[in-house]
Amino acid sequence: MLPVKKTARIFNIQKYSIYDGDGIRTLVFFKGCPLRCKWCSNPESVESGFQVMKQQSLCDDCGICVAACPKNIHKMRPMIDGEKEHFIDREISCSGCRICEESCPKNSLTVMGQDMTVPEVMDIILQDMLFYMSSNGGVTLGGGEVTYQGDFAVELLAECKQNGIHTAIETCGYTKWETMKKFVEVTDLFLFDVKHFDPERHRELVGARNERIMTNLEKLFQAGANISVRMPLIKGLNDSMETLKTTVLYIKKIQTNGHLKSIDILPYHKLGVAKYEQLGQTYPLQDVDMSYTDDELEEIRRYMAQFNLPIRVVKH
User: Fold this and answer.
1) pLDDT tens digits for 93-112?
2) Does 235 lie in the same domain as 298?
3) Which domain holds residue 65?
4) Would you give the end-to-end CA distance of the chain in angstroms?
5) Per the annotation, does 194 bind a ligand?
6) In contact, 214 and 252? CB cutoff 8 Å
């Protein structure tokens, strides 16, 4: 019997990114995340299972996907005028067969998630070697949460390193240290989220306390890892001067070996709001405008920079 090939569930591979690490990069997005951030811009990344996204404006309720779907996820229901409309029964788990996606004449359906092997992902990564070499770029693994599928991710990073490709991961840090430490030898740069310093407020905002996250961050510094700390900035939720000061001073205390590359401020945006509707979900912060002006961001940056650490504003 042939051995079963190791796979990971990937929901997107994005080329030519310039935001998540130096140079031109390929981003590999892993499905599944242990946290539930209210401002998440990739809601399709949170659940580890396959999900169907639907662009309602493109659907004409033809019912072709209803007949095609082997899992009976797609259904029709009557409307007041006697016509029928298509809907997705999200209580039924999608198998990821993609038959509905392929059968839809309007291209209104997208199945999120694809099980891929390391060689399959590497085939896509290696297509852009010239861009990595010319720009000092590389590969960044994100999600979701990359450590959720840690063994596969470490193997993929090791393969990148063997091919001379710079490696980075985006992580929320919420995993066991036994998992996180496997990444140290194969990751050139950790893009590490710090969402709130207070453990209980952290739980209120993302669904879990932060002690495990902070411990992993400290241990990564102790292990000599190169780290950019990323601070998602959400107006009124985690941007008070007291919170910013406490967080920055904590980072300054633990980065004693000098491997802190930057502290990146990631201002709130609503780029992922439409995805919630396509998943049949409600965006948690839809009734609140939390965007920042350039002047507000510069004021925050100057305030944080007074503690003599490298502060950057990173807009996606």
Assistant:
1) 999 999 999 999 999 999 99
2) yes
3) 51-111
4) 47
5) yes
6) no
Residue type present at position 234:
I
- Does 172 appear as a known binding residue? no
- Does the annotation list 177 as a binding residue? no
* Burial class of residue 143 in the structure, from the number of CB atoms within 10 Å of its CB (0-12 exposed, 13-18 middle, 19+ buried): buried
Is 94 annotated as ligand-binding? Answer: no
Same domain, 143 and 283: yes
Asked whether the beta carbons of 18 and 24 are under 8 A apart, the reply is: yes
Other Cβ atoms within 10 Å of 235 Cβ, number? 14
Q: Is position 69 annotated in a ligand binding site?
A: no
Q: Is residue 269 annotated as involved in ligand binding? A: yes
Residue 201, domain member (yes or no): yes
Q: Percent helix, strand and coil across the chain, each rounded to 5? A: 35, 25, 40
Q: Which residues contact 311 (CB under 8 A, 6 or more apart)?
A: 262, 263, 265, 301, 304, 305
| Stretch among 60-69, 79-88, 240-249 having the lowest mean pLDDT | 79-88
- 104 annotated as ligand-binding: yes
Q: What is the pTM of this model?
A: 0.94
62 assigned binding-site residue = yes
160 in a known ligand binding site: no
CA dihedral (316, 45, 43, 289) in degrees, to 10, reads -30
Task: Name the domain boundary from 111, 142, 158.
Answer: 111
Specify whether the CB–CB gap between 172 and 198 falls below 8 A.
Answer: no
